[in-house]
């Protein structure tokens, strides 16, 4: 039995589809029936009969932050893919980020140890990788610098520490650190928001850039690592490093709109995050742009995936074809 936590998210739903299609016996947690419908929608992008596959999953209603109701998730499980994560860059969300990303991961690690899980794969993020002051490609060896990190990045890094702690207590683990994950089905969050923004023919793009990877490549790397003899290692998963302008230039034509042509200036960003801070503190509104995120928009961080390529002879898929697939699915919706 394979357990996938967070199976109703972008990576988790695609992982479930791959595992079920491979004939694996799979269990996943969920929080509401509506979240399972999202999985059914994702499956529908790849098959004409998504319901039959969804019904093959052993669904257990459970919240990983509530330790008391998690034992049923782990009974008879051999392998765990831990995909659950809360994404927010609002400093006011630090406590809930810590509860979900750090305490939730600690619960998964502790129960994996308790039930003798053979191997655990944790989905982290490049946000938990240290930046490179020398302007060369970031690798898994970069030193962590909390002072430059977002609240999301801090909690993902702290969650990684829980996973490494589990390895010291005898749990076989692997960690993946994907870049911005490109995949269909979640158009209001993560990379999906880029497609939504571009589809409106917006004129402005943010400066800087980062690493991008397809959800299919993330799933492929995770399953290959779990089936290998590799353990106690972390791997950056980035297919291509791009500026945000380059990314919008790829997706806009496929959405039949013009790409944004005006770069948001440093002055505009500096003004906006200060206004956003005042708005949040005076009126209790959610932050749209924190200081840490604003600072990160001024440069392009490049990431190296040489380790995964070397260790697994891993080949990334054609990113342009994956982007075109996402655009087609977005138009269909």
UniProtKB/TrEMBL annotation:
All residue ranges annotated as the NAD-dependent epimerase/dehydratase domain in the record: 2-228
Ranges annotated as spanning the membrane: none
A Pfam family matched in the record: Epimerase
Superkingdom of origin: Bacteria
Family matches, as InterPro entries: Epimerase_deHydtase, NAD(P)-bd_dom_sf, NAD(P)-dependent_oxidoreduct
SUPFAM superfamilies: NAD(P)-binding Rossmann-fold domains
Protein name in the entry: NAD-dependent epimerase/dehydratase family protein
Organism: Flagellimonas abyssi
